[in-house]
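Here is one chain, start to finish.
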Amino acid sequence: MVRWRYRQRRAPAKPANVMRGTRKDDVNSDPEDAIVRFENVGLRYGLGPEVLQDVSFSLVPGSFHFLLGESGAGKSSLLRLIYLALRPSRGLISLFGKDIATTARGHLPALRRRVGVVFQEYRLLNHLSAFDNVALPLRVAGARRAEVEKHVTELLAWVGLKDHMKARPPTLSGGQQQRVAIARAVISRPKLLLADEPTGNVDDAMAYRLIHLFEELNKLGTTIVIATHNQHLVDRLGHGSLRLADGHLIQQPGRNALQAAEAAAEEARNEAAQAKAGTRASRRKSAESRPEKSPDSAPDSRAAAPSTASTAKDDEDDFDPTRLENYL
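Its structure:
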C-alpha cells in the first residue's frame, strides 16, 4: 500500500506575524470558504457562443466528485478554469478562499502548485524516464533523495509499472503513459486533484485500481474531481457528480452522501429519543423518592382559622415587624 508521507527540507523561519502551519499568502484566507467556488461563470472562445453559461457550484474540502457530460459539453474547459489555465469571460472564481480576479498575478503560481492535474493528453516530459517524471514534483518540493527513491518506486509498482521505471514516455503505451501521469499528479498529495478522463485508456480492472488510488488520497483530505464518460463506474462508486449539459451545470449529491445524511438524521433521532426517555426516568425517580404525607397530619383549616372579628384587636397588639421576613 502506498504511504503518503515524506519530509521536506526545512523551510526558512516564518516571520512572527505569520501563524504556524499556514503560508504567508494564506494568512488572510477564510478557512470556512469552499476550496473551489464558481458564481455565474461564463466562458467563450473568441467571438463564438458561450461554452459555459452561468455556472455556479462549490466544492467543500475533502469531497469527491465525478464530472459528467457528453463529448464537447465543456468538461475540459471547466477543469482548465479550475486550475487557472483559462480566465472566465464573466463571473467569479475562488480557489482556496481567494478571488482569482483580485489575486495578484505573482501569487497565482503558489495556488496552482496546490492543485494536481492528470491531463487527458498526459503531458509527460519525453526526455525523462517514467521514474524521473513522477519524481519531479517531489524534487521541486525539496524532498530528500532517499525519500524520492522510496515513494516513487512504491507508487510506480502500485500502478503496475515496476518494470518500466527507466523507460521513456515514447516507448510506453497510452495506458502506461496515463498511469505515469496519474502517479506524477498524486505523488505530492495535492489539496485538489483534477483528472481528465484518467481511465480512458486502461481496462476495467486497472480503472478500478486507479480510482481506488484516488479514493485513498481522498480519505487523506484531498478534494477530487474526475471527468469521465464511464457511467457504470460512477453508479458503482456512489460519489457526487457535476453534470454539464448545454453549457449549464447541475450538481448532484451521490449515493454515499445521501446515505451519510440519512444515517446522521437517524442518529439524531435516536439521541433525541434517548434524552426524552432519560428525562422521564429522572422525573419518575424523583417522584418516587419524595415522602408521602399522612392524611391525619394535615391541619384542619376550619378549626385552626381564628375568627376575624374576635382577633382583630389581638393582631394589632401582637404585630411584630420582624415576622415579615417569614412571608417575603
